[in-house]
Amino acid sequence: MANLPTGLISHTRRVQSLYKKALRCLESWYDRREVYRYHAILMRKRFDENKDIRDLRIAKDLIAQGEEEVFQSNHWHPRKFPESPGGVAYERVVTPPDWMVDHWHPLEKAQYPTYFAKREELKKQFIEEWTKKYGKPSPIAH
Amino acid sequence: MSICLIYFVTFLFFSVLSFLLSLNFMILDYSLMLEYEMLSINSCSIIMTILLDWMSLLFMSFVLFISSMVIYYSEEYMEGDIYLHRFIMLVSMFVLSMMLLIISPNLISILLGWDGLGLVSYCLVIYYQNIKSYNAGMITALTNRIGDVALLMAIAWMMNFGGFNYIFYIDVYKNSMEMYIIILLIMLAAMTKSAQIPFSSWLPAAMAAPTPVSSLVHSSTLVTAGVYLLIRFNFALTSNLMLILLFIGTMTMFMAGMGANFEFDLKKIIALSTLSQLGLMISILALGEYQLAFFHLLTHALFKALLFMCAGCMIHSLSNCQDIRYMGGLIKVMPLTCTYFMISNLALCGLPFLSGFYSKDLILEVLSMSYLNIYIYVIFFFSTGLTVCYTFRLIYYVLVGNFCFYSLSKINDNSKIMLQGMSGLIFLVIVGGSMLMWLMFPTPYFICLPFTMKIMALIVSFFGAWFGFELSKFTLNDSLKSFYLLNSSLFFSSMWNMPYISTFGLNYYPIKLGSKLYKTIDQGWSEYYGSQNLYSKISNTSVFLQFMFNNNYKIFMLLIMMWVIFMILYI
Prior knowledge:
The complex is a heterodimer.
Chain A: H1 11-29, H2 33-49, H3 56-72, H4 106-110, H5 113-134
Helix pairs in contact in A: 1-2, 1-3
Chain B: H1 3-28, E1 32-41, E2 44-52, H2 54-77, H3 84-102, H4 107-125, H5 131-157, H6 166-169, H7 177-193, H8 202-205, H9 211-221, H10 224-233, H11 239-261, H12 266-286, H13 290-317, H14 330-333, H15 335-349, H16 355-369, H17 374-398, H18 416-440, H19 451-454, H20 456-472, H21 481-484, H22 486-493, H23 498-529, H24 531-550, H25 552-570
Helix pairs in contact in B: 1-2, 2-3, 2-9, 2-13, 2-18, 3-4, 4-5, 5-7, 7-10, 9-12, 9-13, 10-12, 10-13, 11-12, 11-17, 12-13, 12-17, 13-15, 13-16, 13-18, 15-17, 15-18, 16-18, 17-20, 23-24
C-alpha cells in the first residue's frame, strides 16, 4: 500500500526529483568534492540542454530514459547520512515513551510508592491545566 | 565507582594472573587437569573437567586483557546510554562463556560455552534497536545455530566412545570412522563460528553492534573460537580434510580481501580484514602448523582489537558516521588516534618488528617451504598483497586527503578515557609479536629459501600498497573503473553474492513451497471441505428455511382451511 501513488506528480516535480537522485548518485561514485562538483556541473548541463522542450511526449520519454539510467548506475553502497532512513544509525536508540510507566504491573508500581504517588498528582494537575486552557474535550461520537 | 571500572580491574587482575601462570606452565612444560565431581547418583557421576595448559592460559590472559581494555573504553563510548549496565553485563557474560570454552577438554562444557557465545553475541548485535540490527542479529544467530547443531551431533556421536572428554580419545581413535565423523562435524562448527566461506555473510552484518563489541567479540575473540577448537582437535584431522580446509581457508582469505577493497563502511572493511586473517589462520592450520595458527590468532587479536577501538573513536567523533567517503584528513584533527590506527594497520600488513610481522611472515615462509601446488602459493601471496592494498586504501580515505565531513563538526582528540583504553593495548601491539615469538618458539623455525622467494612477501606488499593508493585516488579526468566494470564490482563488493545465498537463496524454495501449500491446501481443499463449502451449504439451507418461514402464515391458513374442509366433510 505504501508504494501506491497518493497524488498526481507534475512533470516539473519528476524532473526535479530525477535531478536530485542523479546528484546523490554522483555523490556516491565521486567521493572527492572537487571531482563531484565537476561531474555535477556536467549533469546540470545535460538537464539544461533539454529544458526548452515543449513537446511533452519527448520530455516524458527523456525522463523515462533518465530514470532508467539512474537505476542502472546505482552505487552498491550509496552514501547515506547516518541518522537518515537507510543510514547506519537510523532509529538506533529507542527511548521508551513516558506512558509506558502507566502500564507497569501494580506490584512493580508498589516498589516505587513515592514516585507513583507524585506521578498521579502531576497527571491530575496536567489535566486540570489542560481543561482550563482548552476546555473540556468533546465526547467521542462513535 | 562505575561498573566499567570494577570489571576493568577484575579482568585485568585475572589476565595478569593467568599470563603469569601460563609462563610458569610453559617453562615447566606442565598441564593441569582438574576433575570436579558435581553430582553422583546411583554410581552415575557428572564430572566437570578443566584443562589448564600454557595454551589455554595464554589465550585466556589475552581475552581477559582485551576485554578489560574494551570495558574501560566503553565507559566513554557508551556514555549516556540508558542500558549501559545491560551492556557491561552482556560483555562480561561473553567473557565467561569464552573462558568456559577455552578451559574445557570436554565436548559438553565446550557446547555450553559455545552456545553462550552465540546467544550473547546475538544479544549484543541487536543491542541497538533498529531494523538493520535485528536483521543482522537474526543472520548471526541462525548461522551460528548450524554450528551448534553440528556440535550437538558430535556430542551424540561421542557416545560411541563412552565419554565426552575428547582429549582422551583424540590420539587413540584418530584413524577410526567414529572420529572421522566427529572431526567432520567439529570442522563444520568451526567454519560457522569462524565465518568461513559458505557462512561468511554474518560477520560483516554483525557490525551493526556497538563498536566496543565489534572490537572484542567480532574481531579478536568470538570468531577465533572456531580456530581454537580446530587447534584443539587438529591431531584428528585427516589429510583429505586438511586439504578441504585449506581450500576453504584460502578462498575465504581471497574473497574477504577482494571484498574489503570495494567496501566503504569503515567497520565492514575491518570486519572483512578479520575474515581474511581468519582464512589465513585456518589455512596454516590445515597445513599442519597449529602453533603458528595459534600465534597468529593471538597477535591478530591484539592489533585488530586496537584497530576497531580507533575506528570506534573516529565514528564517535564523526557522530555515528561510518562511511569512509565522509572522512579524510583526520590526521590533522585526531593525531593520537590516527597514530594508533596507523600502527595497528601496519601491524596488520606485517611491517617488520610490529606484532603482525612475526606471525604473518613466518606463516608465509613456512608456506613457501612446504611442498604445495602453485594455486595455493599464488592465492596466499595475492591475498597478502590485497591486505596491504585495502589497508592503504583505508589510510588514503581516512587519514590523508581532504576533509570531507560537515564544516561544523566537533572532531577532536579529547576523549581521554577512550585514548587510555587504546594506550593499554598499543604497547602489546608493538612488542607482542616478538614477545610471543620468544615465549612460544624457544627453538627457531628453520627457514631455507631462495632469495626471490624470501623477498616475495615484501614485493607483494609493496605492489599492494602502490595499487591501494593508486586505485583510490583519482583526478578530474579519470574514468571510474569500478563503474565501467559495474557487474564485477557488484560481485566482489557483495562477497561473491554470499549474502544472497544465505538469505534469498535459502528462503526461495521453502517460501515457494509455502505459497503453493497455502494456495492448494489452506485456500484450496481445506476451504472446499471446511469453511467455505460448509458456509455455503449452511447459508443455502438457511435461505430455504427463510423462504419457508416467509410462507408460514400462508401455510398455516391453508392448513386451517384444510382442517375445516376435513371437518365439514366427515362430521
